[in-house]
Amino acid sequence: MTVTDLPKKARLLVVDDEAGARESLEAILEDDYLVVCAEDGYKALNAIQKEEFDLVLLDVSMP
Predict the structure, then answer these.
(1) What average pLDDT score do residues 44-55 get?
(2) Is the pLDDT of residue 13 over 80?
(3) Residue 50 is assigned to a structural domain of this protein
(4) Does pLDDT of 30 surpass 90?
(5) 62: closest CA among 40, 42, 44?
(6) Residue 2 within a domain
(7) What CATH number did the domain enclosing 28 receive?
(8) What distance in Å separates the CA atoms of residue 32 and residue 62, rounded to the nearest whole number?
């Protein structure tokens, strides 16, 4: 098996205004996924414009 045969990890964007929630989700998910975090909607939209994500985990009750 070569490096190119290995499956790519899915890219996740975690969006939450609470640092503890972001850090907890990242710690849980980082072994199986490539995790990018954003602290607000503006940073999340900026990240989405720059790169593709397979899934976005969004805190619904952000200010």
Answers:
(1) 97
(2) yes
(3) yes
(4) yes
(5) 40
(6) no
(7) 3.40.50.2300
(8) 26
